[in-house]
Amino acid sequence: MMGAVPLLSEHDRLEARALIESEGLRFETDADDMVGLYEGERLVGTGSRAGYVLKMLVIAPSQQGGEALGELVTLLMQRGMDAGHETFFVYTRPDNVTTFERLNFRLLVTHSMAALLEIGPGIREYLDTHRALMRPGRNGAIVVNGNPFTLGHLHLAETAARRVEHLYLFVVREDRSVFPFSARFRLAQEVTAHLPNVSVLETSRYAVSAGTFPSYFLKRLDDAALAQMQLDVRLFGSLLAPPFSVRVRFVGDEPYCATTAAYNRTMEEVLGEYGIEWTQIPRLAHGGAAISASRVRDFLGRGDLDRVASWVPPATMAFLRSPAGESVIRRLAGAGEGR
Amino acid sequence: MQIRRKATAGTSQSSDLMVVVEPSDTLSIEIESTVKKQYEHLIRARIQEPLARLGVTAARIRVNDRGALDYAIDARVEAALRRAAEE
Q1: How many structural domains does chain A have?
Q2: A73 vs B: CB within 8 A
Q3: Quick one: fold of B7-84?
Q4: Which of A26, A232, A250, B21 is close enough to A213 for a disulfide, judged by CB 3.0 to 4.6 Å?
Q5: Which chain A residue has the Cα nearest residue B32?
Q6: Interface membership of A128 toward B (CB under 8 Å)
Q7: CATH number at residue A275
Q8: Does A65 reach chain B within 8 Å, measured CB to CB?
Q9: How does pLDDT run along chain B (87 residues), one tens digit per residue?
Q10: What residues of chain B lie within 8 A of the CB of A99, using their CB?
C-alpha cells in the first residue's frame, strides 16, 4: 500500500464516491479536499475535508485495523493546515470513537446516534482565550446568529439579563450568513453595551457551527439535523456551560422557522440532564407581528427600509446605511435568502 | 534560530508524531500523546534537545505523538524547526 494521495481528477473522485456509498455513507458535494489510498490500481480508502470538518472517511474492509486511517487523516490535516486550519472535527458513529482516540482525537460529545471529536488546540484554546470573562454565580446564556441584530434580540438580552447574575451572549462564529460575522459581533456588542452584566463572545466551532449543527445553515430538518441538534445541545451542556457557570439558557420562542423551533425543543428536552434550566421568552412584537431577523431580511430584500427601521436598533440601522450594509442589502435584493 | 512561519513535519501514523511549529513571542510546548500519562515528561525533555541545539527560544510547538521513539521525536522536531526558519 502506498501513502495517501490527493484525489484531483473527476475519475478519482467518482471512484471515491463509489467507495463511500458502498459503505452506506452519503456522498456530500461540499468537500474542499479529497484524499485516497491505493493498493496497486485499486482505491482502498478515502477521506474528505470541508473547511475544518473531516468527513466521508471510508476504508475498504481488507485494510481496516491497520494504518490506513492514520495515512488519510495525516494528509487531510497537513493539507488542511496549509489551508489555514488548526483544529479539525470529525463526526462519526459512536462505535468509532476509540479508533479516532487512538489518533489523538479528543471526544467532545457523544450520544446514541453520533459522536463528535476534535484534534488540535480546539476547545482548550477557546476556553483559555475566554478565561478572563468567566464569572461564578447563577449565570445565563443566549446563543444568537444576529443576522442582523434586531430589537427582538435586544429584548431577549434585556429580559434574560434581569434574571441572572451574569449573561453571556454567544454570537455564532460561522461565517455562512448574509451579514458577516464581524458585523454581527460588533452590533451585538454595541446594542448591549448599556447592560452592565452582559458579555458578548463568539461561539467558535462549539455552538451552531459547521461542525456541530451544519443543517442550521441549510434549513434542512431531517434525522441528520435532529442528531446534530442533540450533539450541539449536549456539547453546550457538558463543555461550554460549566466553565461560564451557566445555569439557564434563554431562547426566544420561534413562530417562523421549523429548524430553530426543533432546536429549541431539543434544548428543552436535553439541558435538564446537565443541570441547566431552559427558559423561553415570548418574542417582542411590533405592529402585530413577532420581530424576527429573517423577516427583517425579507424587508431589506424588498427595499422596505421603513419597516426595518422600526424593528432594529439604531446601531443596526447605521450599519445598514454604511457601504458594507448596502452591499448586504444588494445581495438580499439579488439572489435571495441567506440565514 | 528564528521561527519565521508555520511549518509541520511528521505524520499521524503509529510510532510517529506530527509536529507543528509557529512563530510566537514566548516558547510553549503542547503535547498530545497516546502515551501522555506515562511519558509526557520524557517527550517534553526530548523536544527540548533540538530546541536547545538550534537555539530556538521563541516558538509555539504542538506535538501529536503516537508513541514515537526518541530519535523520531528529535528528527521530526528538527525538521519542523528548520522548515519554520525557512532554511
Answers
A1: 2
A2: yes
A3: Ribosomal Protein S5; domain 2 (3.30.230)
A4: A232
A5: A104
A6: no
A7: 3.40.50.620
A8: no
A9: 999 999 999 998 889 999 999 999 999 999 999 899 999 999 999 999 999 999 999 999 999 999 999 999 999 999 999 999 987
A10: none
